[in-house]
Amino acid sequence: MESLNEHVQELDAELAKIITAVASLTDRIHSELPHRRGMAGTKNVFGEDQKALDVWTNDVIVEALMKTAVVKTIISEELGQPLENPDGNGTYTVTLDPLDGSSNIESNNLFGTIVGVHKEKETLTTGKNQVCAFYNLYGPITTLVYATKKTGVNEFVKHRKGSTDYFLGRENMKLPDKGKLMGLGGAPKDWAPQYKKFVDFAMAQGLKVRYGGAFVGDFNQILYYGGIFSYPSLVGKPQGKLRLVIEANPMSYIVEKAGGACSNEKGSVLEVKPTDPNQRTPIHLGNKDLIKKLEECFR
Ligand code: AHG
Ligand code: MN
Ligand code: MN
User: Fold this and answer.
1) pLDDT tens for each residue of the chain, 299 residues long
2) Is 105 in the pocket of ligand 1 (CB under 6 A)?
3) Mutate to test the pocket of ligand 1, among 46, 215, 216, 229 (most ligand atoms within 8 A of CB)
4) DSSP code per residue over the chain
5) What is the 244 CA–ligand 3 centroid distance (Å)?
6) Closest ligand 1 atom to the C-alpha of 246?
């Protein structure tokens, strides 16, 4: 069985360093989970109370990425502003949600890490300029899913017996033709009438509602079973909740490499030029036919 370290050899060596730098932290992060379930006592730039694990995973991952000497800038949910590599070297910009789904920590539900990578001159660039996106998912087992144009979408499973490397689970993953699930973010009382119209359509199509409260987990099940994940615009919050740069762009890059589509209700999320590293966006990801129907409902 091919290991992650072997699989990334076909990538640009510097890009491979970024993926393996984060992957090599898995055991350290996994062992920390039971011991850091409280609050940090600080707030992030979104005014959200930071969990101790948010801050700790951020610091551990940022340190490892800077040590690769190939990362020029890091945009992290927990840093507020882009962080330049103090040594002034590196060519890649890395976007980071160090701990996605932090509200799931206390309840022992799924959460993970989301990473986007680009090598444009400007720090803020459209999501279509990414060269790689990947995520760790901490569930009953730990997996890492990464996508590049060349390799498509590949899932690796962290082994616990014998070698503790990541080994290839599923290669060149594609969404099933017919979607089965829909993950519906936000409170239904705040949904726009256009979104309610789409939800009625999807329910009439027989899609089942599955929502776990962590983007990584709710996206991963769409990758397996097809359907749609939404964190829509909300009445009073037209930009919804999820962040364009550190959450929506990496996952939109992956869903497109898996044959799916993304939308901010008007068009592809990957075409939006960010003006602020922390800006939010409505985000819908999944089968192309469902995304097309969603955008029709918002026309
Ligand atoms: P984060 O923990 O990085 O702030 O992300 C949480 C996000 C995302 O993972 C999930 O889809 C969404 O927040 C859940 O929001 P609700 O709690 O409003 O359902
Ligand atoms: Mn998140
Ligand atoms: Mn987070």
Assistant:
1) 999 999 999 999 999 999 999 999 999 999 999 998 888 899 888 888 888 999 999 999 999 999 999 999 999 999 989 999 988 889 999 999 999 999 998 999 999 999 999 999 999 999 999 999 999 999 999 999 999 999 999 999 999 999 889 999 999 999 999 999 999 999 999 999 999 999 999 999 999 999 999 999 999 999 999 999 999 999 999 999 999 999 999 999 999 999 999 999 999 999 999 999 999 999 999 999 999 999 999 99
2) no
3) 215
4) --BHHHHGGGS-HHHHHHHHHHHTTHHHHHHHGGG--SEEEEE-TTSPEEEHHHHHHHHHHHHHHHHTS-EEEEEETTTSS-EE-TT---SEEEEEEEEETGGGTTTT--EEEEEEEE--SSSS--GGGEEEEEEEEESSSEEEEEEETTTEEEEEEE--SSS-SEEEEESS----SS--EEEE-S-GGGB-HHHHHHHHHHHHTTPEE---S-HHHHHHHHHHH-EEEEE--BTTBTT-SSBIIIIIHHHHHHHHHTT-EEESSSS-GGG---SSTT-B--EEEE-HHHHHHHHHHT-
5) 13
6) 3
pTM for this prediction = 0.97
214 lines ligand 1 (CB under 6 A): yes
Span from the CA of 271 to the centroid of ligand 3 (angstroms): 23
Sorted by where each starts, the structural domains of the chain and their CATH numbers stand as 4-170 (3.30.540.10), 181-298 (3.40.190.80)
101 Cβ closer than 6 Å to some ligand 1 atom:
yes
CA of residue 231 to ligand 1 center, whole Å: 9
